[in-house]
Design goal:
By secondary structure, the chain is mainly alpha-helical. The chain has a single domain, classed as Creatininase (Rossmann fold, 3-Layer(aba) Sandwich), CATH 3.40.50.10310. Helices cover 44% and strands 7% of the residues. The protein contains eight helices and three strands. Helix 4 links the parallel strand 2 and strand 3. The longest helix has 23 residues. The radius of gyration is 18 Å and the shape is globular.
Length: 243
Amino acid sequence: MKLQLSTWPDIQNYLERSDAILVPIGSTEQHGPTGLIGTDALCPQRIAEGMADEGVLVAPTLSIGMAQHHLGFPGSIALRPSTLIAVIDDVVSSLAATGFRRILFLNGHGGNIATVQAAFSEIWARSSHAGAVSPLSLKLVNWFTLPGVRALSRELYGSAEGSHATPSEISLTWFAHPEAQRQARLEPRIAPDGPIRDAADFRRRYSDGRCGSDPTLACVEHGQRFFETALNDLRDVWSDFTA
C-alpha cells in the first residue's frame, strides 16, 4: 500500500488498524562510472515496494540526503545536516499530527545515519524538556546492514564489496531497472578506500567516485537475490517494530 496512491479516506481506514508507516530514505549522489546517481534512494525504494505489496503502508521516498562529500561530481545533490534534520522533523511531525505513532525509516545511504539519528534525538528532546512522554516510536534501518544482506555480500564479493559504489547496491538497482545497466573498464579494479571528509578531498582520494569496491562484479541476478534477502530480513524487523 503506497501513501501517494491512496486517498485520505484510505489512510483514515488504515489508521483504524495500524499506526505504523515505512519511510524509504536515500540520497542523490554519484556512484562511480557504472552506478546510477539515484542508487541510494532506488535501493530502499525497491525493497519498500515489496513491503507495500504485502500491505505495509509506504511513504514516498525521501530521495535527497546528506551527501556533501559527493559534490565534486556532477549530478550529486546534497542537503546540509541541519536541513535534513529539519526535513525529518517535519515529516515525522506531519505523520504524527494525523495519528501515526510508529515510523520506520528504511535507509540506503551511510551518510544519512548520524543525521537521521540526530533528528530523532531532537524530536524526543522536545518531549523530554517539556516533562512529557513522547508517543512516538522511531527507528532507522539500513538495508545494507541487514544480517542476511551482509552475509550475501560476503559470500558473493568478499572484500571487493567496499563501502561506496558497491556491487551489492549496483546489482539491486540493475534488478529494479535492468534497462539502466552500465559497463566501464575500471582502473584499478578494486578502488582505494579511506576516510570521507569534504567534497574536494573525496574527489582527490577517489578519482572515479568508488571507495574500496569492484562494481564490475554486479549483475541483475545478484540484485534479485539481494532484493529477496533484504525483504525477508525487513519482514522480521517490521514484525518486531509493530508488535
